[in-house]
Amino acid sequence: MAQRTVLVVLFDGVQSLDVTGPLEVFAGAEEAAPGAYRIRTASLDGRPVRTSGGLGLVPDGPLAEAPAPHTLLVPGGEGTRRPDARLIEWIRGHGPRAARLVSVCTGAFLLAGAGLLDGRRATTHWAHCDELARDHPAVEVDADPIYVRDGPVATSAGVTAGIDLALALVEEDLGRDIALAVARHLVVFLRRPGNQAQFSAQLAAQTAGRAPLRDVQQWITEHPDADLSVEALAARARLSPRHFARAFRAETGITPGRYVDRVRLEHARRLLEDTADGIEEISRASGYGTPEAMRRAFIRAFGTGPAEYRRRFRPAPVT
Length: 319
Hints:
Blueprint: E1 4-9, H1 16-32, E2 37-43, E3 49-50, E4 56-57, E5 61-62, E6 71-74, H2 85-94, E7 100-104, H3 107-113, E8 121-122, H4 129-135, E9 140-141, E10 147-150, E11 153-156, H5 161-174, H6 176-186, H7 201-204, H8 211-222, H9 230-237, H10 241-252, H11 256-274, H12 279-285, H13 291-302, H14 306-313
Parallel strand pairs: 1-2, 1-6, 2-5, 6-7, 7-11, 8-9
Antiparallel strand pairs: 3-4, 10-11
Helix pairs in contact: 1-5, 1-6, 5-6, 9-10, 11-12
Domain HTH araC/xylS-type: 214-312
Protein name: GlxA family transcriptional regulator
Keywords: Transcription, Transcription regulation
């Protein structure tokens, strides 16, 4: 088995979890499969850096002396907003030499600044996707997934999504069993699918400003198996269906039907991941009515049916 060097770039203002999350995944994989990874960290001058949260990190050395990486990982954080020009130049020169180039959160801005995302599909933290698209029009920014793979380049969304991406890379390198062992140790799911949305239905939509509409949003969340037609929801808000649909979209940014779809999908996904309930029971509890209706929704969202989703993304019990 060939050893893969993972090099993590450090800089002042880096987000600590962007560094330590993926690093712990690769370190866990190295423990499970000795010799699989050689993990190194480096800063521009080899000096310690201070994270955005105030934590001090001591690198293994300067970037100029770092070993040639198989996987070059660029984390995000406040330090990506006004990066040292020397850091961008180093990434521009060394990034293409890595077999895999990975960014976490706003680390995508450093890759984009080095021109390494031009013509590629990429993502970053949802709050910065518009900015990335505006500042780097040559990048195809996808705001929805938790991570995106485009050839040898992989970009992930905010903080914990870096763990999901690292687990996916370990599974690619060493197989599902090793990745599962690491996930169990870290008490996380083996991995969420890359095309899973970055945030929940409640966060994806804005909170309505008017109390009746906020109450309806809460009702939908708490009763996904209820009659959630526009007519029924409008009656709860004491509005006409037409007025309700228009006001709901104006205040939340999405239609009532789309919001209901997201809530039901999220509810079903959580039941598949967290319970042993049967598919038919989950389909009723989530408001789909039939397993076939839920299967169609899962295939549209995740490219796989509920049973396969459960098999792939629900962690086995720790023994």
